[in-house]
Amino acid sequence: MMKYSFILLNEETEGFLTKLQELGVVDVTRSSKPVDEGSSLMLDKVSAAKRLIAKLEGISYSKDKDFEAVSKAAGKVVLNEDIIDGAGKALSKLADLEAEKAAAVKETAARRPWGEFDKSRIDELEAMGYTVRYYVVSRKKYSEEWAGLHPLQVVHEDSSYVWFVTVCPADEEYRFPVDACAAPSGSWKETAEKAERLSAEIIDAKGEVLKYQGQIPAIREFCTKTLADLELYLATAATETAAEDKLSIVEGFAPVENDEALTAAFDGMGVLYIKEEAVEEDNPPIKLKNNRFVKMFESITGMYGMPGYTETDPTPVVSIFFMLFFAMCMGDAGYGIVLILFGIAMNRNLISIGMFKGLGSLIATLGAATFVVGTILGTAFGMNLYEAAWVPEVLKKCMIVGDLGGYPAQMVLALGIGVFHLCLAMTIKAVGYTKRFGFKENISTWGWLILILGGIAIAALAFLGVMDSAITKWAVIILGIVSGLGIFIFNTPGRNPLINIGSGLWDTYNMITGVLGDVLSYIRLYALGLAGGMLGAAFNDLALMVRGDGGLGWVFFIIILLLGHVINILMSCLGAFVHPLRLNFVEYFKNAGFDGKGRRYSPLTTEVTED
Fold first, then answer.
1. Above 70 in pLDDT, residue 31?
2. Taking all residues of the chain, what is their mean pLDDT, rounded to a whole number?
3. Burial status of residue 160 (CB atoms within 10 A of its CB: 0-12, 13-18, 19 or more)
4. What is the pLDDT of residue 609?
5. Full DSSP string of 245-271
6. Which of 30, 161, 162, 401 has its CA 20 to 30 A from that of 303?
7. What is the DSSP string of 536-601?
8. Strands (E), 152-246
């Protein structure tokens, strides 16, 4: 990265930042939060517009019984000059009308059993000194004997309820076995007519909403423009002022390959600037450079953090091992085929799921790896391929099954991959730390690396019979002396040797317990793959049990297979995502010395992507 420091008059700052925005490659230090009322207002506008888009996109009238009437109503709508305000009012109006209609329909249903009557006549009767009381009781509870208590008239009845009224003088003592209900406030026809009138108004309101649905692209454009303005505003607010508030000093970063073009552009602007190669102390932004395959996994690294300016990008290693770990945790070739098809469908927009947007290629790649690894492990849709008669013998010879040294071969494979992964991490740490801090500061790191890698190499050669016992003995002694000097004596050159020995002993304790725990963590690769395979086999067995001799059993057979394997795929995918993340983020990054405290390169640009 190149670092640019621009010295500007305050009144020139906004115009200059606008030009930087047009260039689109300079990362200007910006505030991550609204810095004042102005930026808060812009954020509120964008948030409101996004919520409006979500509401409009979630509405469809194509299957509405009044769709033709709604479409005609939409053609008569005159849009508000402020599209966002107009759309918001249209949605609010529609919601109010629908709520009012629902209340009218409910009131109509409550009034209908009382029939048609004139409320004024009831009021006249009560003015004459009579009280009318209204009752609704269940048919089982209703008694014909109640008619002997007071004058009673059944108004309506059905299979469940009886509606009736009693009329008696207001000054007469009144007792009744059940409580009266609220009197209807009018005839049911009044509320029915109101509901009908509201239905017509709702059609017009839906037409207005439909009209504003066509303005979604314009609302999106507003969001993009406002976000770009906000980026510019925050960049302006984040500038450092100097010389009694008369000058602004703006700091920005851009990739080295853009320096020639940027220098020419800055010279053309006549701006005063200083440029120099960025150093770690400047905390420059990080722009990763990877090939097409590795780029798919940059989001995985980004979940942990961007590498520091002098750190090595771990994504190339993460891409290979995350893919391998995912495939081992899935452990089923059939599920790999499903993921491949799902990824292809995502890429071709045959399936659209928001959380997986843009990940079709990654999903298909993970599916391909799962297919290969699942075949090697001998499992497809819960079936044991090694025992299947239809699988070619040539393919079976490539499968890793059975035991190795008294332990399941697949478990030994998982631990072996774990050891290699950790050794690779330690090697990268030793090389990276030496490059960053010098060999003198990392003698202990090299001592541990020599001890572990040398120990593994000597053990392997002795086990294979390449080295006899005498040579092995001297190799172990030399290895112990060389690594011991680095770990216990020269771990911090220039310090008291006794303190170094104490420090080395403490590091030894931490290394032994830490590395052992880290290696054992890789058993999860075997355990998750085994669990998924066993659950898939269980669903297969259950489906075969209910199939019976055929007939209806085939229906249940297919349902159990589909439902069971869908559940298993979803559960397996969850585990195959989370656990490889842990093995990379915890075991690998810890042993590789990866901090991940860098910040992502985010140039000031007019093309703002929505996160």
1. no
2. 86
3. exposed
4. 53
5. TTEEEEEEEE-GGGHHHHHHHHHHHT-
6. 30
7. HHHHHHHHHHHHTTSTHHHHHHHHHHHHHHHHHHHHHHHHHHHHHHHIIIIIIHHHHT----B-B-
8. 152-157, 161-169, 240-242
- Selection from 39, 225, 40, 219 nearest residue 608 by Cα: 225
Name the residue ranges covered by the structural domains of the chain: 1-29+240-280, 37-103+193-237, 117-186, 292-401+523-592, 411-521
User: How far does the chain reach from its first CA to its final CA, in angstroms?
Assistant: 25
User: Residues 372-387: what's their mean pLDDT?
Assistant: 92
Q: Is the pLDDT of residue 43 over 80?
A: no
What would the CATH number be for the domain defined by 1-29+240-280?
Answer: 3.30.70.120
- Cβ 288 vs Cβ 315: under 8 Å: yes
Output the CA–CA distances (angstroms, integers) from residue 590 to 294, 350, 427, 432, 522, in the order listed: 21, 40, 12, 13, 15
For 72-135, what is the HEC assignment?
HHHHCCCCCCCHHHHHHHHHHHHHHHHHHHHHHHHHHHHHHHHCCCCHHHHHHHHHCCEEEEEE
In whole angstroms, give the CA distance from residue 544 to residue 556.
Answer: 9
Query: Is the four-CA dihedral 285, 290, 295, 297 of positive or negative sign?
Result: negative
Amino acid 611: pLDDT: 45
The rounded distance, in Å, linking the Cα atoms of 334 and 539 is 14
With a CB cutoff of 8 Å and minimum separation 6, the contacts of 220 are 53
Please, which pLDDT band fits residue 34 given cuts at 50, 70 and 90?
low
pTM over 0.85: no
Residue 42 in tokens: 């812009």
CA-nearest of 203, 215, 204 to 79 is 215
